[in-house]
Amino acid sequence: MASLSKIIDVHSHPILPFGEGAPMGKGQKQPDWSVESALSYMEENGITACVLSSPASANDVTGQKARDIARRTNETLAEFVSKHPKRFGAVATLPALDADGALAEISYALDTLKLDGVTTTTSHNDTYLGEPQFDPWLEELNRRSATLFVHPTTTKAGKTLLIGLNDSILEFVFDTTRMITNMVVTGAKKRFSQIKIISTHGGGTIPYLVNRIKTLEHTFGVGPGRLELSPEEVREGIASFYYDLTAATSEAQLYAILKLVPVSQLLMGFDFPLMPKSSFAPAIADVGRYSAFSEGDLQSISYANAFRLYPELAKRIE
User: Fold this and answer.
1) Mean pLDDT of all residues in the chain?
2) At what angle do helices 206-220 and 171-185 cross, to 10 degrees?
3) Pick from 174, 165, 48: which is nearest to 122 by CA?
4) How far apart are CA 89 and CA 78, in angstroms?
5) In percent, how much of the chain has pLDDT > 70?
6) Phi first, then psi: what are they for 151, rounded to 5°?
7) Which of 40-49, 216-225, 228-237, 275-284 has the lowest mean pLDDT?
8) CB atoms closer than 10 angstroms to residue 57
9) Residue 110: count of CB within 10 angstroms of its CB
10) Cα–Cα distance between 45 and 106 in angstroms, integer?
């Protein structure tokens, strides 16, 4: 069986003593996290570096408070990277509902702090990415050809449908599906095509539903403000995302994802410290034993694809 090496984990959440914390169900206790515990799980699993993200950090507040939390988060992450430049990358959180604040934070985080990209959640205040209010900072990320890591959250409507389960069990994967679909049918994904957008958890249910979405979107039409897209255009838009393989390494999942995108758009992710540590080694083994992957494919998934999205991290490591 082939194996992964030099793994770059693009999905790792620091738990900071301020801000909203890791994306998870409201009322759930945040797991413990430290630089030392992060380095430990990396050593135990042959992970060369992880990209830290706190996508929901400033989501629970607005105005200057949101700007302050985003700034404090990004400066804290920059400190982690400065102390461990070969082990950590980091992407900047934004006050996403504040266009001017988001633009200012993009400039500071990428130009001054030299963070590796940007992160946000699938929706903000029940509004999904793709809607016009997010255009100002998406335009700036597009101008910069930045990498954007998008993590699911839960809308108010979604909260009523949890049937007693934690948000991460079902709702997160459907939330990612809604975000991807909305970005495509609003035309945002095509308009901002220079942004390299990473969708988490194997794209949620997208690999399984892509044929249904492209057929029925065309058959039944679209709502106000949506584009009249052909099935081929819908599929092309969905296939333009990158997909991390966090909790998406079973044979069935890999088969479906590879019917949608090439190996060059797949990345490794482990969701530390939210996912149990016992899931990391099996996930690595799943990818290594998948019969369709060549040695070159495994190198791409392990690190080469991530290095293209995060070139400054690649320089620090290589």
Assistant:
1) 92
2) 40
3) 174
4) 8
5) 96
6) -110, 145
7) 216-225
8) 31
9) 21
10) 32
Q: Are 97 and 62 in contact (CB under 8 A)?
A: yes
Task: Find residue 8's DSSP bridge partners.
Answer: 49
The whole-number average pLDDT for the span 234-242 is 97
Query: Mind giving me the DSSP string for the chain?
Result: -----SEEEEEE----SSSS-SS--TTPPPPP--HHHHHHHHHHHTEEEEEE--TTTTTT--HHHHHHHHHHHHHHHHHHHHHSTTTEEEEE---TT-HHHHHHHHHIIIIIS--SEEEEESEETTEEBTBGGGHHHHHHHHHHT-EEEEE----HHHHTT-TTS-TTTTHHHHHHHHHHHHHHHTSHHHHTTTSEEEESGGGTTHHHHHHHHHHHHHHH---TT-----HHHHHHHHTTSEEE-TT--SHHHHHHHHTTS-GGGEEB---BTTS-GGGHHHHHHHHHH-TT--HHHHHIIIIIHHHHH-HHHHHHH-
pLDDT at position 217: 81
d(CA 65, CA 20): 12
